[in-house]
């Protein structure tokens, strides 16, 4: 029995294909196979011999049969692997190079900010970039002697000779959009106004044209506490941190009363900005409760309605978040800079899925 077992187990292990394995099976277990012939001899044995030889032969037959099936499965798997190697076809998309064009950081951050405020229920409002003197200054409670109304600070549009109408300007902020929106849509309202603005300034942190986003919320019971919550939620979402700490400093803006500059607790350890920790404070935006004169200019009764407003520079918060050192590079159209700081067109920011790369 041991000799037969060793003989056929070795033959099974040495079979290189299913035809060879079938030949081993017929030799061992076929009708005229060696083990089958041994089974037939049981009838010629005495009962005592049969009791010993029968179980041994049955066990040997089962062991050989199990080995045959296992080897057949192994050969089938090997044959399938070889076939797949020959018939292999990659149905996935080939690797693609990143598109040469990228999304400008200003566009990316504008979309990020819009997504955050949209999640808090703010709609987007737009207005013209060439504004009347009234919308840009008077309606916003800016006195005639205000420095922003001088030619050294604001771009005034040329007027035809003899034209005595109030001048038009390249808007110095997106606040006129608030006036236009309230006048057209009334109250209550909750909007943000992103867009280009223009001022006469040019250095590492200032350019003649830059981008700003302002927010406005008007209702009957709006308070500074709600303004603080909105700004905290914005900073937490924008900088993608779990904790932020804001500090409100009393300030003065013609269009809000009271007014406050908002500082953000941060750390500059190792030259890297870390929000929500450290001993430093960084001013990031201005805010306050909307001045009654502004509400009246938009046709809103300030005795019934009140609200808050805030504004920040999109370019500046883009510099802070993405480590961009010079504001002027935003407008130089340097392809090397755009490839380095740009964003993939497919990386659309969402509050739930993540804002940045």
Per-chain topology:
Blueprint: H1 2-14, H2 18-29, H3 34-40, H4 47-87, H5 105-119, E1 123-124, E2 130-132, H6 133-136, E3 168-170, H7 175-185, E4 189-198, E5 209-219, H8 224-238, E6 246-253, E7 256-267, E8 274-275, E9 280-290, H9 292-297, E10 306-313, H10 314-322, H11 335-341
Parallel strand pairs: 1-4
Antiparallel strand pairs: 2-3, 4-5, 5-10, 6-7, 7-8, 7-9, 9-10
What keyword list fits this structure?
11 helices, eight-stranded mixed beta sheet, 357 residues, 10 strands, alpha+beta
Task: Outline the structure in words.
- With about 350 residues, this protein is α+β, with helices and mostly antiparallel strands.
- Helix content is about 40%, strand content about 20%.
- It has helices at about 1-15, 20-30, 35-40, 45-85, 105-120, 135, 175-185, 225-240, 290-295, 315-320, 335-340; strands spanning about 125, 130, 170, 190-200, 210-220, 245-255, 255-265, 275, 280-290, 305-315.
- The strands form two sheets. Strands 1, 4, 5, 6, 7, 8, 9 and 10 form an eight-stranded mixed β-sheet that branches. A two-stranded antiparallel sheet has the order 2-3.
- A hairpin with a 6-residue loop joins strand 7 (about 255-265) and strand 8 (about 275).
- Helix 2 runs antiparallel to helix 4 (about 45-85) and helix 3 (about 35-40) runs antiparallel to helix 4.
């Amino acid at each position: 029995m041991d000799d037969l077992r060793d003989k056929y187990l070795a033959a099974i292990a040495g079979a290189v294909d299913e035809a060879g394995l079938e030949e081993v099976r017929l030799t061992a277990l076929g009708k005229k196979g060696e083990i089958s012939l041994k089974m037939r001899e049981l009838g010629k044995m005495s009962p005592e011999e049969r009791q010993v030889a029968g179980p041994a032969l049955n066990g040997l037959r089962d062991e050989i049969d199990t080995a045959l099936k296992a080897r057949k499965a192994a050969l089938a798997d090997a044959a399938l692997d070889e076939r797949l190697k020959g018939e292999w076809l990659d149905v996935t998309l080939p690797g693609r190079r990143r598109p040469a064009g990228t999304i400008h950081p200003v566009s990316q951050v504008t979309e990020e900010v819009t997504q955050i405020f949209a999640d808090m229920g703010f709609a987007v409002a737009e207005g013209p970039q060439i504004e009347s003197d009234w919308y840009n200054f008077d309606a916003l409670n800016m006195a005639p002697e205000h420095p922003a109304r001088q030619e050294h600070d604001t771009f005034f549009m040329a007027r035809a000779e003899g034209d005595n109408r109030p001048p038009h300007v390249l808007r110095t902020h997106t606040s006129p959009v608030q006036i236009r929106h309230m006048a057209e849509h009334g109250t209550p309202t909750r909007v943000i106004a992103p867009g280009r603005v223009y001022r006469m300034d040019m250095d590492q942190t200032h350019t003649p044209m830059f981008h700003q986003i302002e927010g406005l919320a008007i209702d009957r019971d709006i308070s500074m506490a709600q303004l603080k919550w909105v700004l905290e939620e914005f900073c937490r979402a924008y900088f993608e941190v779990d904790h932020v700490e804001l500090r409100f400093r009393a300030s003065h803006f013609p269009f809000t009363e009271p007014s406050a500059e908002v500082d953000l607790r941060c750390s500059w350890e190792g030259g890297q900005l870390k929000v929500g920790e450290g001993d430093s404070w960084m001013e990031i935006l201005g805010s306050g409760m909307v001045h009654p004169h502004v509400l009246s200019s938009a046709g809103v009764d300030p005795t019934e309605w009140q609200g808050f407003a805030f504004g920040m520079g999109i370019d500046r918060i883009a510099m802070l978040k993405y480590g961009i050192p010079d504001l002027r590079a935003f407008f130089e159209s340097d392809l090397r800079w755009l490839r380095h700081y740009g964003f993939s067109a497919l990386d659309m920011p969402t509050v739930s899925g993540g804002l940045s790369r």
